[in-house]
Amino acid sequence: MAFALGFVVRAAPALAAGFWGLLVLRALVPAGVVLSVGRLAAAAAAGDGDALARWGGVWLGALLAERLLDPLSGMVEGNLNERLTARVNRALMEKMNRFAGLEPFEDAAFYERVERLRREASYAPMNLSIFLGQVLLAALTALPLLLLVARWGWVYPPALLLSTLPYALAGVRLQRLVWETVVGTSPEARRMDYATGVVLSPDLAAETRLFASGGFWARFYERNFRALHARGRAVRRREVLVSGVYVLPSALGLGWTFGSVLKGGVGVGGVVEVTAALHRLQAELALLVEALGMLERSLYYMDELRAFLEAEPRITGGRLRLNPGPPEVVFENVSFRYPDGRVALADVSLRLEPGRTAALVGENGAGKTTFVKLLLRYYDPSEGRVLVDGVDLRELDLAAWRRRVSAVFQNFGRYALSLEENVRLADLEAREPAGPALAQAGAAELVSRLPAGAVTLLGKAFGGAELSGGEWQKVALARAFYRKAKLLVFDEPTAALDPRSEARLFARFAELARGRTALLVSHRLASVRTAGHIFVFKAGRLVEAGDHGGLLARGGEYAELWRLQSERYA
Ligand SMILES: Nc1ncnc2c1ncn2[C@@H]1O[C@H](COP(=O)(O)OP(=O)(O)OP(=O)(O)O)[C@@H](O)[C@H]1O
């Protein structure tokens, strides 16, 4: 609760203060109305014209205040909510950016939590302020009403509260049940979300149409919906039952108070006052119970948020900075298991010579991409060491190390930014234009074809120009070249390129990689045959190393892969 409150206050201190201040004012109004109505009735019965005018003024003032305060607090609430949502999203981004490794994306439970926090960011913290407001408003409204009732006997307020207690406890417990069984966290709700996501995804539209799998996903959705809905109905039935059963004691409390007060003889004004007060009080107490349940749900979100914000990144950088030349990288008996226990690299030892180009080849799942992930320290080895210029990678200043590296990954980014920005994203401090890097990537022609050249907005997200798969890959290559890095890592950099573009790139590669250490990852052996060192991986192990000629002569795994590939062309 302290965290949640602190979060709201820090998001917008002035707005939060205004919100609570208005709340107190709004809470006083109903008591004012009740009091003035009672006094009006008494004045009317006694024929007291002065009192009638006085209490009539109070009554009108209270009504007017209610009309004015409601929109005002609505405005403050709206502003506060926007600030809160932005603060949550900012906190999510800042925290995620602090994870230098990839572990938050690999841990399914953790990632699911992040996704949920993001999905609910636009309403859950807002709900917190709304329901916290409602709880406080109902409590604050009930308080003066209870004080009014107390004027007829101090026993009445505790009696009323006690009789409401069973209903309150059951109501809050039930809200928790609703949250756990029906709301977005249940597996069914997540599967429903997944199914709609598939059918509405532009990336999957071609496949779902060709394979006519849209109906499958609709049925998938339906099955999960039915399960969820059945549980939802059961919970709601219980809700009605609980309200019916537990409302009895509070009705008895009300009835007893009402009867006892009237028996005492309170006059006309008193009758009107006690009737109005009890009527309003039971409404406020019911509201309080409901809001408490909803508040608990919102606090659950804030607990999740807190747990996420307090999670400590596993990969943290050291302090050492090395000279910024082309690095020497040595893998020393490196093994690696993914968090799910799967062994992806087993006892790998190899050396990338500074200023030379090396290549990793091997079948699908051989461990090539995993090797790259360790090289860039997205993970630390389970065993062994990765040495850069003789120093353990874990001791290096991680940001400084990554600034020495540039890469094209298999799943490269396609950003809804201009072409120029897509490239310059690799080095936001550099002042050079993107043109030369685009030319190096073979994308000069693409620039001239786009309606606004390099400043053309790309991607469909905001209505920009869509590129072909190969064109996007050229943009990713340009991005990699734009950064003046000393280690280039290209993981399947030409998978989407046409043969001419691919041939051109590799013809220029030696020149592009001059003065840099470079690592090419590919199963297309023709692309890597010129590399000085070729490392052949199989099932997570380094099984051969050498140059193209040497590996062919050896007649092992590489020679076999080469034969299979060249046979297809022959
Ligand atoms: N995030 C992950 N969690 C668990 N296992 C993984 C993960 N990523 C990869 N693996 C497993 O690790 C092994 C090596 O995968 P890796 O991606 O390194 O192969 P690769 O040689 O790059 O394959 P490809 O040529 O298909 O890209 C595979 O068996 C794969 O299933």
Automatic annotation (TrEMBL):
Principal subcellular localization: membrane
SUPFAM superfamilies for the chain: ABC transporter transmembrane region, P-loop containing nucleoside triphosphate hydrolases
Domain of life: Bacteria
Record flagged with keyword Membrane: yes
InterPro entries assigned: AAA+_ATPase (IPR003593), ABC1_TM_sf (IPR036640), ABC_transporter-like_ATP-bd (IPR003439), ABC_transporter-like_CS (IPR017871), P-loop_NTPase (IPR027417), Type_1_exporter (IPR039421)
Listed Pfam families: ABC_tran
Membrane topology: Multi-pass membrane protein
Chain ranges passing through the membrane: 26-46, 126-148, 154-172, 240-258
UniProt domain ABC transporter: residue ranges: 329-564
GO MF, one example: ATP binding
Subcellular locations according to the entry: Cell membrane
Entry keyword set: ATP-binding, Membrane, Nucleotide-binding, Transmembrane, Transmembrane helix
SMART domains, per the entry: AAA
Official protein name in the record: ATP-binding cassette subfamily B protein
Organism lineage string: Bacteria, Thermotogati, Deinococcota, Deinococci, Thermales
